[in-house]
Amino acid sequence: MRIRTIAVTAAVIISTAALSACDPKATAPAGAPAPSGAASVPSASAASSAAAPAKTATVPVFIGMGLQSAQDAAQAAGFAGLTSHDALGRARHQILDRDWRVCSQNHAAGKSIPVDTTLDFGAVKLEEKCPGTDRTPPKEAGETMPDFVGKSVKAAHQALPSNASVDSKDATQGRLIIIESNWQVCTQTPAAGAALNGQPVMFTAVKFGESCP
After folding, report:
1. Which residue range(s) make up the domain with 101?
2. How many CB atoms lie within 10 A of CB 121?
3. Which of 24, 123, 147, 177 has the most crowded Cβ, counting Cβ within 10 A?
4. How far is CA 11 from CA 7, 8, 29, 51, in A?
5. pLDDT single digits (tens) 59-97
6. 100-105 β-sheet, strand order
7. Domains: count for the chain
8. Is the distance from CB of 159 to CB of 141 less than 8 angstroms?
9. Residue 114 lies inside a defined structural domain of this protein
């Protein structure tokens, strides 16, 4: 009887071992390392950290340079995104870059920044003086008429709704106002602070450098 019990027990042990060997999901003994599966995939954070850092370059000194020369120097330094604006806030376009000089730059000289950063130059015409700080054009008009006196007619016109009816007249000599950025507003109707609800807008103006009557 004892011999038979031993034989049965041995058979059970052998069967269990065979099943464990065939079952890939069988639990490993405590303390034993887990079976290795498929090759591990790097996490997104690990892949990101392994990415090459953004290319940078040192910003040159552009202030005082001609606008065309400043743009050439910026490109030579590795910067491709370039723009410029009228430092006097008159909304003039820099059509001939050689006729303008740089008064301000949006990133300080000597600073290291990514080369895909856009550089913006504030500029005036060669015969003009740079302002202490860039003069910004008036903000877009909402439901209230802004104060446009002293601003260029072009900048004032651009700040109004695109469907606004606008008329501008010479305040002194009856001249035609053709290049609006060369004229400054002397008077306006409606007055600053009045409700703006679609009524026509009237400006009188003189050329920059002239005095309003």
Report:
1. 56-125
2. 25
3. 123
4. 6, 5, 21, 59
5. 999 999 999 999 999 999 999 999 999 999 999 999 999
6. 82-86, 119-125, 100-105
7. 2
8. yes
9. yes
